[in-house]
């Protein structure tokens, strides 16, 4: 079928600035005339001449409005000289699967995709009144770096036209197959393929599926995976049930829904209610037997939460434990780790492991894009964020299902000597063992969602001012008899990328204490409305007699101090946070 290229006039929007991970707004905002068109055209303009003849991937977590956006992007891509658009069946691909496809999938003539539009607002809710998002990933499979997103943003502010194919009708993305067209730049194809095949192949090359299958077949082992109605469900079905023969009853909410069943597809103790209940961590005691292992992923399947029987593993501990056990338990790492990395607010549990294993540790700002250069340079194998993000250099995104397979591998490894029917080493045993070897980093995060934007700015300005009055702060600690150590430093985190030398400033306000404790404040860059303030609180404990204390109890003095110091309630009018992790 032939099409022609037409250029349509458009007027710019002022608010198309990509945040921590792409452009995220309410669906109602994305539905404004030319809103999607402008952003997509601006991305092609920012990439410049090199878009001609490229293959790009377009898909996402299946949230409401994805199908409309896919059809628009196909037509704009065709008119901009893209050669092929690769789409997961039904427009579904998890964020990690997109990254894997860019890096590994090869077309019939040996060509690879060089970029992707990922349609997701990740852990934010979906539906007509909720959130949508578009994120551009580049040829290494990772999110576009700030240099590119800044360029896209500046183009969106002055854009006057976009190009669109005239003569391409909506493409049927519900069936696998190729749709061929001819345009002014030559042939243009839309290729629809199975959404799971590339990712499943990659996972099989990383993990020992035989060992995991053996663990899952043990009658004394049970598992519960909750996809929260996000896209991870299709991968869970393929990998856990079809490849690893897990009992299908181990999976819950594994059919993707456009509105995620009305919930937040956010794998934490507040939003993953059903799983939290099943694992015995809710207010009610479950009537069914509690599984040994529980896990959840977010809407686009790049986040994960790991639970044991009545036990929560903090994401900061999770990455440290994976790093400490990777070489023995996961074939991909058998020759050793190249280095490890964490985002700044993530606890230092990983630092202690890095020191013991004599590995280099990198501390980067919040956002997975900052790990990309380190991995491309072969300096980092495993990395993580406190926000339920864990992953490795197998791709350039965090990876929820990978994290679950990593934990299953560690469980399989620790239980390899336990006879069938014997008492299993549990998730809790593994974590407690880790704490007794490395010490424990008590950790909590308070999120204040949808705070007035002006109030949030004033709060941050107040915190910046406090950095120059540490002696006053320490007198206050003394006078109020707060049970916390002396503050020795207050600063704003700044990062210089060791590979490309780029500098990222204002990445969070830190107060560092004499005993290694930390308080971090930063505004979120992923919200779609108002401002979200995050407060991160951490304290290290190496005394074995104090390691078992309840986390919120251990951290109470620091929390009290953080709220007093920041005057958070006075600034925001919030007496308590929206979510505590
Ligand atoms: C949050 C997390 C950050 C994560 C980002 C994207 O960003 O804190 O660690 O990388 O979300 O995750 P912010 O700026 O709101 O704190 V996802 O799963 O939403 O792509
Ligand atoms: Co996500």
Description:
A hairpin with a 3-residue loop joins β17 and β18 (389-392). It contains 18 helices and 26 strands. The protein is of the alpha/beta class and 581 residues long. α2 (35-47) packs across α5 (146-156), α10 (315-329) runs parallel beside α11 (349-356) and α10 crosses α13 (400-414). It folds into three domains: 4-195, Alpha-D-Glucose-1,6-Bisphosphate, Chain A, domain 3 (3-Layer(aba) Sandwich); 199-438, Alpha-D-Glucose-1,6-Bisphosphate, Chain A, domain 3 (3-Layer(aba) Sandwich); 440-580, 2-Layer Sandwich (TATA-Binding Protein). It is globular. The strands form six sheets. It has a seven-stranded mixed sheet with strand order 2-6-5-3-4-9-8, with helices on both faces. The mean pLDDT is 94. Bound molecules: alpha-D-glucose-1-phosphate-6-vanadate and cobalt (II) ion. Alpha-D-glucose-1-phosphate-6-vanadate is lined by residues 20-21, 122-123, 298, 302-303, 343, 366-368, 385, 387, 389, 524-526, 534. Its cofactor is Mg(2+). Its EC number is 5.4.2.2. It comes from Ceratopteris richardii. This is phosphoglucomutase (alpha-D-glucose-1,6-bisphosphate-dependent).
């Amino acid at each position: 079928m032939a099409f022609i290229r037409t250029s349509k006039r458009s007027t710019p929007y002022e608010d198309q600035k990509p945040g921590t991970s792409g452009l995220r707004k309410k669906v109602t905002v994305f539905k404004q005339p030319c809103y999607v068109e402008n952003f997509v055209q601006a991305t092609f303009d920012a990439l410049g001449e090199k878009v001609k003849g490229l293959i790009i991937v377009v898909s996402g977590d299946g949230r409401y409005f994805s199908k409309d956006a896919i059809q628009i992007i196909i037509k704009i891509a065709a008119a901009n000289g893209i050669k092929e658009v690769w789409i997961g069946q039904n427009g579904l691909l998890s964020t990690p699967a997109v990254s894997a496809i860019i890096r590994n999938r090869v077309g019939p003539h040996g060509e690879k995709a060089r970029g992707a539009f990922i349609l997701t607002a990740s852990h934010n809710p979906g539906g007509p009144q909720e959130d949508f998002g578009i994120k551009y990933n580049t040829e290494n499979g990772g999110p576009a770096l700030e240099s590119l997103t800044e360029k896209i943003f500046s183009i969106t502010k002055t854009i006057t036209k976009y190009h669109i194919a005239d003569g391409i009708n909506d493409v049927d993305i519900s069936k696998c197959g190729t749709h061929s067209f001819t345009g002014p730049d030559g042939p243009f194809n839309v290729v629809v393929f199975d959404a799971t095949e590339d990712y499943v192949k990659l996972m099989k090359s990383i993990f020992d599926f035989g060992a995991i299958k053996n663990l899952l077949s043990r009658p004394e082992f049970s598992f519960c995976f909750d996809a929260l109605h996000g896209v991870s469900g299709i991968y869970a079905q393929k990998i856990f049930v079809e490849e690893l023969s897990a009992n299908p009853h181990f999976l819950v909410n594994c059919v993707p829904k456009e509105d995620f069943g009305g919930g937040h597809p956010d794998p934490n103790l507040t939003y993953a209610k059903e799983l939290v209940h099943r694992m015995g961590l809710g207010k009610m005691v479950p009537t069914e037997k509690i599984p040994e292992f529980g896990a959840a992923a977010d809407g686009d399947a790049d986040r994960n939460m790991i639970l044991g029987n009545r036990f929560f593993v903090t994401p900061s501990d999770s990455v440290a434990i994976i790093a400490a056990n990777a070489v023995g338990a996961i074939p991909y790492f058998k020759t050793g780790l190249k280095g490890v990395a964490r985002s700044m607010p993530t606890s230092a549990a990983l630092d202690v492991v890095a020191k013991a294993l004599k590995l280099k540790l990198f501390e980067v700002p919040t956002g997975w894009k900052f790990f990309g250069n380190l991995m491309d340079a072969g300096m980092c194998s495993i990395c993580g964020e406190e926000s339920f993000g864990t992953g490795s250099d197998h791709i350039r995104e965090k990876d929820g299902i990978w994290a679950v397979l990593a934990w299953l591998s560690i469980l399989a490894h620790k239980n390899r000597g336990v006879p069938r029917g014997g008492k299993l080493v549990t998730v809790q045993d593994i974590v407690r063992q880790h704490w007794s070897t490395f010490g424990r980093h008590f950790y909590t995060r308070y999120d204040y969602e949808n705070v007035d934007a002006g109030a949030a700015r004033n709060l941050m300005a107040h915190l910046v001012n406090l950095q120059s009055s540490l002696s006053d702060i320490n007198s206050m600690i003394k006078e109020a008899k707060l049970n916390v150590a002396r503050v020795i430093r207050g600063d704003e985190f700044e990062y210089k990328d060791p590979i490309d030398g780029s500098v990222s400033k204002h990445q969070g306000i830190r107060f560092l204490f004499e005993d290694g404790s930390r308080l971090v404040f930063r505004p979120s860059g992923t919200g779609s409305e108002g401002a979200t303030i995050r407060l991160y609180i951490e304290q290290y404990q190496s005394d074995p007699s104090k390691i078992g204390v309840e986390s919120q109890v251990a951290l109470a003095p620091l929390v009290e101090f953080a709220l007093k110091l920041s005057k958070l309630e006075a600034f925001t009018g919030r007496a308590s946070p929206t979510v505590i992790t």
